Queue: 2 jobs
Job 1
Amino acid sequence: MTAPPIASGRVLPTLNEDGSRNWIRPRPSPGRWWRRRQVVAYLLMVVFIALPHITINGHPAFLMSFPKREFHLLGWTFLPTDTLLFMLFLFSTIIGIFLLTALFGRAWCGWACPQTVYLEFLYRPIERLLEGGYVGSRNLDRERKFFTPRRLLKYAIYAVISLVLAHTFLAYFVGVDELAVWMRRSPWEHPTSFMVMALTAIAIWYNFTYFREQTCLIACPYGRWQSVLLDRQSLIVAYDYVRGEPRGKPATSPDAAAKQGDCVDCKACVTTCPTGIDIRNGLQMECVHCTQCMDACDAIMDKVGKPRGLIRYSSQEALAGKPKRLVRPRTVLYPLAFTLAFGTMLTLLFTKESADVTVLRGLGAPFSEEEDGRIANQVRIKVANRGSDEARYRIELDGATGGRVIAPENPLVVAGGEVRETSIFVLLPREAFTNGAREVTITVSDGARFTTAVPWRLQGPSGSAAPATSPAPDTPEGTP
């Protein structure tokens, strides 16, 4: 059997020539951009931990509850009837990311993405502390020592942190109160929810312990989108090839120095990169714009007595010596689309009533005939209380004079933030219908600030003329 072919040169940053995993242990490069990212990262961690515990208008600042079918965001409540609002919110978010990328490149990836924030400012610092820094981690990798006491301790600490992050993450979907109940109960009493928590913690632990930068390179589609999200005027982390080439060690003679670029080929930008790329090869999908190469290169430039900025925030057009153009198609269309979507959402949100009423036909046949010859229609009424307090909604019917209206529950009591449904039954004589229909109006009111009238068409047999109706509303019979 012949040996498998070996690639000539590394194919991927995370793959060695023999196909084995190349473990990326970036050398930290403290600098001005690193310190700024530290501040942003730790602020984001605090916000992530605290947000589920903050309440606004009696609700969590952020809660996406699938069992309750409601979404709370900074005091706003989205109910199942708010599909349009929710879609406008998601559309605005996506357009906002597109606009941010068009202007500032992958700023989200390098500055705010949880994958980058936690990996670079929590998990990897612990790793370097326990394994003897960048050199210690590299030596353990070279010797293939993955289960030494130091690394086992690291895995255990990672497990504790992952449990905390998993519980916090779940609080965004079940709420801190429900999560506290889960934590106090035995796993045998709630096996499903316990498995959800355990699998979430295992996924987080595996991601930050083993998968790491491959989440950005393989799983996340954002890097592949950048080819259409960026243009040549977008801000990127870029190597100034005009100034840096030809690269080489510092020249000793003035003539040689005059022909040589500023790049001394020290590869500091490569060893500090968390995805293992060489930024000098130009814009690449794997670059998350973390600015580590900028700090590393600035430090080297200081040592060799050359100006900073060989690797800096720039654009492809600027590096080519072309003027900067802020106004271009995507910087005009994206803001317009964002303003339209977000403005529409805010308009609908602030003009929305305190309750939503949906009227539906009964299940089964559109109408039925009673033994006494009257025609019966079932009408389902669904009320969503958007307020935080309980409300009592009175149901009235206009246009059913001469008939009978039965409501098993009237008024309908709906708790704050809840959705309830009830049915009313309308019985009318056969001659009340014209061409198989009878127009009525259903009015729902809480007796205070909310009243809505919904035109409705009752179904019945055709062929009879409708008698004159009184404009006075009919109160459905039922619970007083």
Job 2
Amino acid sequence: MSAIPEPALRITPDMLLSRKVDLERRMGRLPPVTLVILALLAAIFVAEVRTGALDSRASIIAIGALARERVVAGEYWRLLTAPWLHGGAGHLVGNGIALYILGLVCEAAFGRAQFVVLYVLSGLAGSIVSVLMAEGPSVGASGAIFGLQGAAIVLLRRERDRLLVRDRRVGFVLLIWAIYAIAGGLTRPFIDNGAHIGGALGGVLVAMRLHPVVLSPLPPERAVAVRRWLWLVVALLVYAVVGWLRR
């Protein structure tokens, strides 16, 4: 007596999705590095307001803004200090919202150490392009934040077969922020779209070298490389602080 063959198993979309890593479930609501950066940005802005740094072009330059003539004269530390300053409360709030959202994504995807490297180097790339495109002065974290956005795009495209992102509203919110930031660069003083372009390009380039820890642990050899990059970033920040103190 022959056995009745079982019907073929139909592969459904749900079955395929189940093989992906749910990025949103890996995100913490309180990403520690992102929150530390947000706190620093807020504290620095309070200091700007109290010292009258937003009162004039000269005062914003004096506090550490990016200005081509100063950088060409040897004040390279401004490339690193300008991303920590802001030109107004609205500028800070808009950047803070975008940083929090992208921090949730990138800190979960790349881990704390790689996130710090990505953020600082993206801000530096934004400052370099800003100096090439405009005389300044300019300030703002949006170059670094555009870098996070560029890195998120690289991650989601490169790992689209392994990552599941269920809530597309995040992308819509970030699109609105990008339009807002670029419009601000066209209409407000101290905000520069060169930093946005440079930051995005820098984020893309850095992300191509990062390991997505959300998918697998950092291999030992990659961990050594990340520590070296992290020490470089620390050295750059120390240089910026020393340069600012000696200005």
